[in-house]
Here is the input.
Amino acid sequence: QVQLVESGGGLVQAGGSLKLSCAASGGTFRFNDMGWYRQAPGKQRELVAVISRGGSSTNYADSMKGRFTVSRDNAKNTVYLQMNNLKPEDTAVYYCMATSIRVYWGQGTQVTVSS
Here is the structure.
């Protein structure tokens, strides 16, 4: 059974940085796309960033470009999200996702940015 476990969330002041990690376990296959989504209170879940299997292709939501960086380590089945220059509007639960024959989701990690 595949499990995705996020870590690295927390409380940070505006302008600060956080790095999220998501480790996948329980599967014997390599994942295709991996990445991050987020959901703020009262809002729909939205794309943050996705990275392709080989890491050569990335896709970011416009508001994250230049501030967030997604990366992955396939040997560890882990995807990362480096978040810099955080803003209060980045406050949300961040969910890790990974795709193979289906989409897998983590349980989410809270990121709170204070002004």
